[in-house]
Amino acid sequence: GVIGRSWAMLFASGGFQVKLYDIEQQQIRNALENIRKEMKLLEQAGALKGSLSAEEQLSLISGCPNIQEAVEGAMHIQECVPEDLELKKKIFAQLDSIVDDRVILSSSTSCLMPSKLFAGLVHVKQCIVAHPVNPPYYIPLVELVPHPETAPTTVDRTHALMKKIGQCPMRVQKEVAGFVLNRLQYAIISEAWRLVEEGIVSPSDLDLVMSEGLGMRYAFIGPLETMHLNAEGMLSYCDRYSEGMKHVLKTFGPIPEFSRATAEKVNQDMCMKVPDDPEHLAARRQWRDECLMRLAKLKSQVQPQ
């Protein structure tokens, strides 16, 4: 899928040899074809990652019809199958029986807990979640989430690898449902839904609050640094605003049911901007990715190295 293809491109951008494996051979052929097209377009746009040319990177990526052959000699295995616990467990059990004591076994899961995902594996110390953000090629964050028995060296090696391929890894100290990114994202979605459902703001205006407001600064600094800068430091901010924040937070409602009625209302507003047919959605995603590519270029110019 998209995540697996992105990982392949990212690893190749770092000069690593990449082998793609899937039980469906057509999936491998489709992936290789899509990767070739995307890399050529990125090169034309001056947005190809790494120091190698598109052809040089493409020469590092190949398909493999046999899982044992695919993982032979590997230093890192990145699983990217659908978000199905039993399916992922089956794959990691299969890998557990054929890998050595050096390779890292990593999952791209966005919400499955490592303690459930890697339970009972012989090589559990080598297991970790490396959760990317969609689309990974343009958004560099990777959440590293260890199993309680994951070796510190596994976390360190994965962190170093992610840095090597130009991603921005962060360490989740212990597992929690949704990890960090989705917990923050769901908190925003939850309050956004309540505000729309209660008739306080329209769906389109709600999105403006993020795209033309919070998102502008969150593209460069996070909520904690925002607090720090919006007063004379964090202690000053808490002294000034904590009572007001607590007052507002107490007015937040329960978790929304995400009812059909509100969903239809939101969908109607969204479709006025982007009709929900495949053609319009694909075009809007392409526009989004182009914006992210330009933002990434800007961030690389203004952020201290």
Output the CATH class name of the largest domain.
Alpha Beta
In the predicted model, the low-confidence regions spanning at least 5 consecutive residues are: none
Radius of gyration, in Å, reads 21 Å
> So what's the overall shape?
globular
Number of strands: 7
What's the average pLDDT?
A: 96
β-strand percent reads: 5-15%
Percent range of helical residues: 40-55%
List the helices and strands and how they pair.
Elements: H1 2-13, E1 18-21, H2 25-44, H3 54-58, E2 61-64, H4 67-71, E3 76-79, H5 85-96, E4 104-107, H6 114-117, E5 127-132, E6 141-146, H7 152-164, E7 168-171, H8 181-197, H9 203-218, H10 223-229, H11 234-249, H12 260-273, H13 278-302
Parallel strand pairs: 1-2, 3-4, 4-5, 6-7
Antiparallel strand pairs: 5-6
Summarize it:
This protein is of the alpha/beta class.
Q: Could you list some keywords that capture this structure?
A:
305 residues, alpha/beta, Rossmann fold, N-(1-d-carboxylethyl)-l-norvaline Dehydrogenase, domain 2, five-stranded mixed β-sheet, phosphoprotein, NAD(P)-bd_dom_sf
Structure description:
The record marks 131 as: Important for catalytic activity. Pfam families: 3HCDH, 3HCDH_N. Residues 1-175 form the 3-hydroxyacyl-CoA dehydrogenase NAD binding domain. It is found in: Cytoplasm. By secondary structure, the protein is α/β, with parallel strands linked by helices. Helix 10 (223-229) packs across helix 11 (234-249). The protein has two domains: 2-171, Rossmann fold; 181-273, Orthogonal Bundle (N-(1-d-carboxylethyl)-l-norvaline Dehydrogenase, domain 2). It has helices spanning 2-13, 25-44, 54-58, 67-71, 85-96, 114-117, 152-164, 181-197, 203-218, 223-229, 234-249, 260-273, 278-302, and strands spanning 18-21, 61-64, 76-79, 104-107, 127-132, 141-146, 168-171. The longest helix is centred in the last third of the chain and has 25 residues, at 278-302. The chain has a five-stranded mixed β-sheet with strand order 3-4-5-6-7, with helices on both faces.
